[in-house]
Design brief:
Elements (H helix, E strand, L loop, with lengths): L3 H13 L7 H10 L7 H24 L19 H9 L3 H18 L3 H10 L3 H9 L4 H29 L1 H13 L11 H26 L7 H7 L3
Helix pairs in contact: 3-6, 3-7, 3-10, 3-11, 4-5, 4-9, 5-8, 5-9, 5-10, 6-8, 8-10
């Protein structure tokens, strides 16, 4: 308290010497009492937006190329749970080709749909507030990814599903699925309930995309080499 009295007096003197405007003393108090090393709000927001643009663009680019899903074991789309029995039995009787063709076609559909995510991610970044920026900066290693999931999942799902449907037609998912099920049900004593493939591939594609966004976020937070600009180094350290 004793230390604060001289500080308050100094602030009052400074305030009286300035043209009167609403909130001037509050602003001055914030500046004088700002902890040493605290980053300017605009700098934080700008740096975080830059990091998010880079991270989301890198993630989308990674999953959109050929084998972006199929070649990544962490996000590869497997057969739906409802078809696990079919997969095991078909592989057991050496009909792997039907299963592999089906898995390939689903992952190709996801790879074709993924570039469409860029626009929705960019809009979410533009909508980022100062409060959002500080919450993300102070959050865990995937706080920004959590922000994206909350803000964009529904929009991405609505956008992805028709594109996935079209891509499934182009990559032969439905034909592959039918061949797989036909082979499976031709075996004795088996039956197979239908699967909503469009919803399944859409959800798995989005889960894989958010996983990659999280990977990019961790990289920028932890790896100084990933901070490719002065602004990123200033906000995330390692300058």
């Amino acid at each position: 308290m004793r230390k604060f009295v001289p500080l308050l007096a100094t602030l009052m003197v400074l305030a009286s010497a300035q043209p009167a405007r609403p909130g001037f003393l509050d602003d001055l108090l914030k500046e004088v009492t700002r902890p040493e090393g605290t980053k300017d709000e605009r700098t934080v927001a700008s740096g975080l937006r830059e990091a998010l643009y880079i991270g989301t663009d890198n993630a989308v680019q990674a999953v959109s190329r050929e084998d972006g899903y199929l070649g990544n074991l962490k996000i590869r789309i497997p057969v739906p749970d409802e078809l696990e029995g079919a997969e095991k039995l078909l592989r057991k009787v050496r009909m792997d080709a039907y299963v592999d063709e089906f898995i390939l076609s689903m992952n190709r559909a996801a790879e074709k749909a993924s570039p469409q995510a860029v626009g929705i991610f960019h809009q979410a970044i533009k909508d980022l507030t100062i409060v959002d920026a500080f919450d993300i900066l102070r959050g865990d290693d995937t706080a920004a990814t959590g922000y994206f999931r909350e803000k964009t999942f529904d929009g991405l799902h609505a956008l992805f599903r028709p594109i996935v449907t079209e891509s499934m037609g182009q990559t032969g998912v439905v034909k592959s699925y039918k061949r797989l099920v036909d082979r499976y049900t031709s075996l004795p004593f088996v039956n197979q309930e239908p699967v909503d493939l469009e919803d399944y591939v859409t959800n798995r594609a989005l889960e894989g995309l958010f996983h990659m966004v999280g990977e990019e976020e961790r990289k920028i937070r932890k790896d100084p080499a990933a901070r490719v600009s002065k602004l990123l180094r200033e906000v995330f350290g390692g300058s």
